[in-house]
Amino acid sequence: MELDTSKNIQNAEIYKITFTIDKKRFVYIGLDTKCNPNYFGSSLIIYHYKRIYGKEIFTKEITHKYDDISYKELCELEQDLIKKSKKSAKKEKYISVNYTGENKSNITSWQWMDI
């Protein structure tokens, strides 16, 4: 089912997922248009670690809630928060697992995943 971007979304959330594997701390920012507490994002990295370690290793924090917002605006807010998160992740020694495509032309393999 495709999301109709011409209609506003009644309820949406932007969330932050954090987890630690082998003393490495990871962070992921995502959005959810269904406000499902069991949704941990579409990241393949999170999917991979969830299958191996279970959802117990993840901490999910709802950082923003929105009512009656366009999908375009929601995505723009998410991208802004991802950029801010990537900057703060470096300072706080977290590894951001959000893929923004910024360095797409420099990557020839899955080296960016660092796993």
Distinct helical segment count: 2
Q: Give the proportion of residues in helices.
A: 25-40%
User: In angstroms, what separates the terminal alpha carbons?
Assistant: 32 Å
- Output mean pLDDT: 86
- Taking strands numbered 1, 2, ... along the chain, how are they ordered across the largest sheet? 3-1-2-4
Strand count: 4
Structural class: alpha+beta
- Categorize the overall geometry: globular
Secondary-structure element string: EEHEHE
Q: What is the domain tally?
A: 1
- CA radius of gyration is 15 Å
Low-confidence stretches: 103-115
What share of the residues does DSSP label as strand, in percent? Answer: 25-35%
Characterize the main sheet: 4 strands, mixed
Structure, explained:
There is one protein chain. Strands 3-1-2-4 form a 4-stranded mixed sheet. The protein has one domain. Helices cover 27% and strands 33% of the residues. The chain has helices spanning 44-53, 71-91, and strands at residues 8-21, 24-32, 59-70, 94-96. It has 115 residues and is an alpha+beta fold.
Features:
globular; 33% strand; 4-stranded mixed beta sheet; 4 strands; alpha+beta
Quick structural gist:
The protein is of the alpha+beta class and 115 residues long.
Secondary structure layout plus pairing:
Layout: E1 8-21, E2 24-32, H1 44-53, E3 59-70, H2 71-91, E4 94-96
Parallel strand pairs: 2-4
Antiparallel strand pairs: 1-2, 1-3
